[in-house]
Specification:
Elements (H helix, E strand, L loop, with lengths): L2 E7 L5 H9 L4 E5 L3 H8 L6 H7 L4 H9 L6 E7 L16 E6 L2 H8 L8 H4 L1 H15 L5 E3 H6 L1 H12 L22 H4 L1 H5 L15 H18 L6
Parallel strand pairs: 1-3, 1-4, 2-3, 4-5
Length: about 240
């Protein structure tokens, strides 16, 4: 029987490195941001490599759900989910068929990284308020005591963080999760050339380095507005 694990993150976290870690397990397959094309079509947002993304994936959320619940030939099906892609019209009942983990990051650090790729940013773009909503909704739907991990904690101690997540999910930790070959993956979304340069060069989680963020007043206001939702999640995180 396949365990389907949805890892819920906002953008500009360590979500792609986390996908690398799980994909490096011999018992796992992964899917990269399966709702991205749906999100672009339904929201009207314009992102880099827009046409390529829209052509690469199903654009109806119902079709995406079918993908996530399909039969696979691996014991573990890891699903890299972006919280901001989950628009309100999506029926979340399928989440009862999955196991879940939430990956969080301080909003100021998210925004500081995001604007290096896309110059404008608002609440919806970084998905932190939506992440807190989804945590509450999915907890009720799934009945799972969902683990929460902070990206900073993972970088400080990847072994402890991943071991704790595996334990809570009833999985054996695999040393293969701590390092992987550099390079591209067939499983990466077509948007990888714009977003994944650092991950493609990586062979493991980068050592933690304190982040200096100097946001303008407008961006700091967005960060401040998202801090309460982040803190709600942070209070539930796995303490290593």
């Amino acid at each position: 029987m396949t365990l389907r694990l949805a890892m819920w993150s906002g953008p500009r976290n360590i979500s792609t490195a986390m996908m690398r870690a799980w994909e490096n397990r011999p018992d796992a397959m992964v899917i990269d941001e399966p709702f991205y094309a749906y999100y672009l079509r339904a929201s009207g947002k314009v992102h880099p490599m827009q046409d390529a993304v829209l052509e690469s994936q199903p654009q109806q959320w119902q079709q995406v759900v079918e993908q996530l619940l399909q039969d696979v030939d691996r014991p573990l099906f890891y699903q890299k989910m972006m919280t901001h892609h989950m628009l309100d019209e999506i029926d979340l009942s399928f989440c009862g068929e999955l196991k879940h983990c939430f990956l969080i990051r301080n909003p100021a650090n998210v925004i500081n990284s995001y604007v290096k790729k896309i110059s404008e940013v608002n609440d919806e773009d970084i998905g932190i308020k939506r992440q807190w909503q989804l945590y509450q909704q999915i907890s009720e739907i799934s009945g799972q005591n969902i683990p929460v991990i902070d990206g900073q904690d993972v970088l400080k101690n990847p072994r402890a963080a991943l071991s704790s997540v595996c334990e809570q999910l009833g999985l054996d930790f695999d040393e293969a999760m701590l390092s992987w070959p550099a390079g591209k993956r067939d499983s990466d979304g077509v948007w990888a050339p714009h977003w994944y340069q650092r991950v493609e060069a990586s062979t493991g989680f980068e050592p933690y380095r304190p982040e200096a963020t100097e946001l303008c007043a407008e961006l700091q206001a967005v960060a401040d507005d998202n801090m309460e939702a982040y803190q709600q999640m942070y209070a539930k995180r796995i303490i290593l």
